[in-house]
Amino acid sequence: MVETKPTDAPERPDQPMIAAKGLVKRFGSFTAVDGIDVEVRAGEAFGFLGPNGAGKSSTMRMIGCVSPPTAGSLRIFGMDPVRQGPQIRARLGVCPQQDSLDLELTVLENLTVYARYFGIPRKVARERARELLDFMQLGDRAGDTTDPLSGGMKRRLTIARALINEPEIVLLDEPTTGLDPQARHLVWDRLFRLKQRGVTLVLTTHYMDEAEQLCDRLVVMDGGRIVAEDSPRALIAEHSTREVLELRFGLDPLEPIAEKLDGIGERVEVLPDRILLYTPDGDEAGAAVTGRKLHPSSVLVRRSTLEDVFLHLTGRTLVD
Known about the structure:
Elements: E1 18-27, E2 30-40, E3 45-49, H1 56-63, E4 71-76, H2 85-89, E5 92-95, H3 107-115, H4 122-135, H5 151-162, E6 169-173, H6 181-196, E7 200-204, H7 208-214, E8 217-222, E9 225-230, H8 232-239, E10 243-248, H9 254-259, E11 267-270, E12 275-279, H10 282-291, E13 298-303, H11 306-314
Parallel strand pairs: 3-7, 3-8, 5-6, 6-7
Antiparallel strand pairs: 1-2, 1-4, 8-9, 10-12, 10-13, 11-12
């Protein structure tokens, strides 16, 4: 049974914006979300990472009040999304993974028409819409129809539309998927500015550099459960090493070479084209490799990233 205790008491200043306890979502016999605990505080950027089928989207839909929990407790602004969905949705901004713009309306009309769903007066809606278009660097395209816009422009317009009701929480599902590097960085900049204004951001992403750039805290999900939670920096420190040594040996079989690296660094991982050696000091490890009379065709020392943590926790096998 989903917990449905009364939640009409005033919000506390220290109350989490989102609080989930033992949250479960089932579809028939399939459990998509399997008893997770999550707290999101006001003004932070919080991320959900995980492979396909990890339960990220199911969790986001429950937070967005469009999919009721099967079991456990979920509170947004201290309210119950099952009983108080409309009140919660009025304070949320939602940027879905797929743009759902009206291609026959102008850029400005996409915002002003959407504003009517929130009961925003027409004059106020136009003022907000123009401010948001300037904020997302779309002000000069206000009178254009939406269909000819580039993918990056459509994505920025979708984010602008999610902000028309001045939401306290913005849910962003894969906000920069399919964008070129310049468009991604522009979106990152605008999301960072939103956070500076005190807006709470909750996002899913497949880009580990995006999670490192935007998220104050994040959870890594796998199989419907949370397998790690902390800041990106803390997760790297806990689950990886300071540096990674990447070794390539041309066409030589890598497994026999990897056996000769035993004892160098903390962990060795063999990929189809290279060997990864996880170590606190890449240069020192490189010297040790050479000292064992191994001669890689290329050597790269880099810092550990969130991607290293993600793949270590969830595996490298593709999940459809």
